[in-house]
Specification:
Length: 111
């Protein structure tokens, strides 16, 4: 049980220890929790059931545009800009969205 809940404690500690937590922490922490909730052969039925419930709760959070915003925020944070928690196509997608937004901002300034 302690091993199951330790990633949640770690995420809570990280957010509480930051003097000003930023949204860029959400994607890496969510990914860490989702990875830790992967099913293992040695999990008891109770632990497996709890992992499924926690994973279901986290998987449904931050859909669509919210998730895109969080990914972009994470990419702009020097601590996480490698976006290791995303696959190559997702990283490229985030990069392209940021480039487009930067171009749009530059165009607004020019006019």
């Amino acid at each position: 049980m302690v091993r199951l809940l330790s990633p949640l404690k770690k995420a809570t500690t990280v957010l509480c220890d930051e003097s000003q937590p930023t949204v860029s922490l959400i994607v890496p922490l969510k990914h860490m929790i989702e990875q830790s909730m992967a099913q293992c052969d040695e999990d008891s039925s109770t632990i497996a059931q709890m992992k499924r419930a926690i994973l279901k709760d986290f998987t449904d959070r931050y859909p669509g545009e919210q998730n895109k915003f969080l990914q972009e925020s994470t990419a702009l944070d020097p601590r996480f800009r490698s976006l290791h928690q995303l696959n190559d196509s997702q990283r490229e997608e985030v990069s392209n969205r940021l480039k487009l937004k930067a171009t749009q901002m530059q165009n607004q300034i020019d006019f």
